[in-house]
Amino acid sequence: MSTDAPSPDGGLPDPEAVLDRLVELGAVTESEDGSLATTSEYEDVRRVYHDTYAEMDDDGVESTVADLFGVERAEAASLLDAGEVTRADVIAYLAARSFADGELDSPTLAVASDLLVRIEPETPVPEAFEELTDDSYRSFLDSNPDAVVTVWRHHCDPCEAMKADVPEILDAVPEGVATAGLDGQDAPAFRREFGVDAAPAVLLFCDGERRETLTGRRRPETFADRFADVFGDS
User: Fold this and answer.
1) Average per-residue pLDDT in the chain?
2) Between vectors from CA 57 to CA 73 and to CA 12, what angle results, nearest 5°?
3) Among residues 130, 162, 159, 164, which one has the least CA distance to residue 147?
4) pTM confidence score
């Protein structure tokens, strides 16, 4: 969202101060190296608005922009046409307002939405897995001929549901079999090489060759059976 976008209260606050507030609220996290990411809690809220507004017709979006910023419909349409306000901005603004639950005023929300559309979300890969990328998966597979590699994605209900099963899934992995995970959106080369077009996906590699790919949420018992068949019981 352009920082020139109108707000009911006039001027806009300092972006650094707004960023600090987003960190305090838990919408953004800052790692030790200074990199920023939106939190899964914020992304859960944003997903609700994305599902509503991503496919909404132009009239509906214009009406929302007019209501949010107290402008006429014609001006709202002009802002959208000029790219000064985008659907992503509207989604981020509404998600931030809902997430903050009254803690942020309108000018602060305008700056917050501009920041939030620029910050990438946290990885969808559960912490229990070593995270791979397109630059590192080949080295991992070369070093670990027996491996279970999982593929995850943001805004994926089956992925979120399967995260609850991760401890049981890992308990079923035979000793000596390595485990790792990838963010499918950021690993197109991996997905192309192994034909992965859905998430979650669990790929079983034995003796350096992919033996099986399981997609969608499965019962932990199903994974245990497949692991035993592919890797044996040891």
Assistant:
1) 91
2) 50
3) 130
4) 0.66
